[in-house]
Amino acid sequence: MSPLELTPDAQGKVRDIFDLGDKLLIVATDRLSAFDVVLPDPIPYKGEVLTQISLFWSDFLKDVIPNHVLSADTADLPDEYAAYADSLAGRMMLVKKAQVFPVECIVRGYLAGSAWKEYREHGTVCGIALPEGMVESQQLPEPLFTPSTKAVAGAHDENITFARMAEIVGREYAERLRDASLELYSRAAEHARSRGIIIADTKFEFGMVDCKVTLIDEVVTPDSSRFWPAESYEPGHGQPSYDKQFVRDWLEASGWDKKPPAPSLPEDVIVITAEKYVEAYEAITGEPFIPQGE
């Protein structure tokens, strides 16, 4: 977690953000959100895992589009934050400030989650017609770009059409974000598949830095994606997952109405979820996860 003595200038569902003037310090906490609600129980090491996976992808995908990362080294912290280096190690990033586009750029490669629910009812995904007879978890004919609004904490994101996205950010930027999202997903999905993981879907966020479209926030993490083990992949039903889908499934079965406050998670769900995050990191990067912080 972020050091309790530090008060963030802004707080997302799982990240604390500190304004350093010419840059930002982003700290990934161990908080977990599901259905756009922050859960009461932290997941051990989650913040470190998210940060390290995101750093891996930011470097791996840097030739597709610039990203906002400046440093993840505590030695680069300003003097007033140096005393908290041990707590911040592994879960912090110093990043460039960006003028954020107010949309989330979602790419779906497989029929899962809300996409599967919509398809069953209407034969579409975010209003896009798909072939008849598809089954749950089936790979889509081609990846779909399905943007959404960017909700504040406690509110729900809403799917929007590409035309509506173009109205919000302008058609030129909408096309740039769409094309970049599809390319980023393609590159990441190819690498992940070579490591035994299917990336069913993911979301990206972008901003303007020095007049350039720039990839910001987390990149293809278990919080922003569905990771499935390729070895056991079988269309026709839900898939076992490396990501927080395990928590989503438990919450769905609990009878929770998806409104705050969320219920507490059982200890076994917390432990298994922490293990899945670590498994995802080790599979994607090919490196053992070694906690860095306190």
Verbal overview:
The longest helix has 24 residues, at 171-194. By secondary structure, this protein is α+β, with helices and mostly antiparallel strands. The N and C termini lie close together (9 Å). Helix 1 packs parallel to helix 7 and helix 4 crosses helix 5. It has a domain at 99-242: 2-Layer Sandwich (D-amino Acid Aminotransferase, Chain A, domain 1). The chain is globular. It has 7 helices and 16 strands. It has helices at 46-60, 85-88, 113-122, 162-169, 171-194, 245-254, 267-285; strands at 10-11, 15-19, 23-28, 33-34, 37-38, 69-71, 92-96, 99-100, 103-110, 124-125, 128-129, 139-145, 148-149, 197-209, 212-216, 225-229. Strands 8, 9, 12, 13, 14, 15 and 16 form a 7-stranded antiparallel beta sheet that branches.
Descriptive tags:
alpha+beta, D-amino Acid Aminotransferase, Chain A, domain 1, seven-stranded antiparallel sheet, 294 residues, 7 helices
